[in-house]
Design goal:
Layout: H1 2-8, E1 17-19, E2 22-27, E3 30-36, H2 43-55, E4 62-64, E5 73-75, E6 78-85, H3 94-103, H4 116-131, H5 138-164, E7 173-176, H6 185-188, E8 194-197, H7 199-212, H8 217-227, H9 232-243, H10 246-258, H11 266-270, H12 272-287
Antiparallel strand pairs: 1-2, 2-3, 3-6, 4-6, 5-6, 7-8
Helix pairs in contact: 4-5, 5-9, 7-8, 7-9, 8-12, 9-12
Length: 300
């Protein structure tokens, strides 16, 4: 791989580090990441997003072209992409996210509708089919039904509020597939992670990640609510996103598809009750700003 990268990107004497299928090296004091990219149909949009952000003085990662002036380098039938990353360890707080989100609002000519419930339903259907066809260990058996149930609550929640607020227009932003805590530039300004969605997606994913990192996510939620005025619809979408257990399904997919150790799911079994307490507090906190749908098992 070292020789391949050096050839296609006119580099010499690089020192490669590899984590799974992501290659990282430093060259002339700058960081480079060479990684597989499975959305080749969407590369033009991603490049446009990058240009848009740079035109607004947001320093997202550069997508480098190879010696053929192409964004992809195919290796063993897999498309790889090269990113140049500056200041990769800068950490963005929720306040930084609010500031950047205001600059990451994009023009979207059509009325933007939330489709989380549909996507979540499709994921649950796929997982249930998968479970009927594969053998899973006891850790998955002990937890999967609970988290499918939690996801179904989130699906019901979104479907209900979408009906209640069906005429409200949502403002799309360049959101992310997933936000983590700590929220470093390496992930946050990676154009490969951009998707068109709403700001509350990123906020909720950040708060859930904070909780599982044993940080005070409720205080962070309070700061966000005090700093940002939303519509009743958006407050409800924020809670719906908190309710959906993306953190569990992300690890589940790695266990099943990438043969990760299922022990990584144990935290979601051992601390399920604590997370329900977090959801109760979050529901109560957001309810100070707008009426939320009631959920029987989250009474406080």
């Amino acid at each position: 791989m070292k020789q391949t990268i050096e050839y296609y990107y006119n580099l010499t004497d690089i020192q490669l580090n590899i984590e799974k299928d992501v290659y990282h090296f430093t060259y002339n004091d700058e960081d480079y990441y060479f990684l597989p990219f499975f959305q080749s149909h969407n590369i033009d949009g991603i490049i446009e997003y990058s240009k848009y952000l740079k035109s607004h003085n947001i320093d997202c990662h550069d997508i480098l072209l190879n010696i053929k002036k192409e964004p992809f380098t195919k290796i063993d039938e897999v498309n790889y992409i090269m990113l140049k990353v500056r200041n990769k360890d800068i950490d963005y707080s929720i306040f930084d996210m609010l500031d950047l989100s205001s600059k990451m609002t994009i023009d979207y000519s059509k009325k933007y509708h939330n489709n989380w419930a549909l996507l979540w339903s499709q994921k649950i259907d796929y997982i249930e089919t998968q479970l009927s066809e594969i053998k899973v260990d006891n850790i998955i058996k002990k937890s999967i039904d609970y988290y499918i149930g939690l996801a179904e609550s989130a699906i019901y929640y979104v479907n209900t509020i979408n009906s209640l607020y069906k005429d409200e227009v949502l403002k799309p932003v360049l959101a992310h597939k997933r936000i983590y805590y700590p929220n470093t530039k390496l992930n946050y300004l990676n154009p490969i992670s951009f998707i068109v969605d709403i700001e509350q997606r990123d906020v909720a994913e950040y708060l859930k990640s904070m909780f599982w990192a044993k940080e005070d996510a409720i205080s962070e939620l309070s700061y966000y609510l005090q700093s940002k005025k939303l519509t009743p619809y958006s407050y409800n979408l924020l809670f719906a996103r908190l309710l959906y257990p993306s953190y569990y399904f992300d690890v589940y997919e790695k266990v099943v598809n990438e043969h990760e150790n299922s022990n990584k799911l144990i935290i979601y079994i051992d601390k399920a009750d604590q997370f329900l307490e977090f959801l109760k507090k979050a529901h109560k906190e957001i309810s100070l700003y707008a009426p939320l749908l009631k959920i029987d098992y989250l009474k406080y």
